[in-house]
Amino acid sequence: MLEDLLGGLGPDAFVKPPLYVDYGENIRIGARTFVNYHLTALDVAAITIGEDCQIGPNVQLLTPTHPTDPQPRRDKLEAALPISIGNNVWLGGGVIVGPGVSIGDDSVIGAGSVVIHDIPPGVVAVGNPAKVIRDIAPTP
Known about the structure:
mainly beta
């Protein structure tokens, strides 16, 4: 059923239910990625999750945007920007990723962080809004 719902599911990817989506077909999950309970993925635009990722419980991937001007918002106008999560990324529990964000390969986002700007590869980022606090040293 999951393969029918999603736009792509790599080999040995594992998604624990429940999973909440707008469409499903705009989500691609890479090989060997693990998604814990209660992922909310509002896929009005594309959501790409790379290979070997770890997605903690209660993560939200939110592509929709709404106007800040009151009248268009009252008119229920909506747009969306894609989210891209690189390979070997770890999103801690309760992380929120906003529209248009890219997270680079090998990065770690601390639990409860709110990511509203791109995160480069190979770093640890935490907070609201998430900020890079250090590089990740390669393992010898």
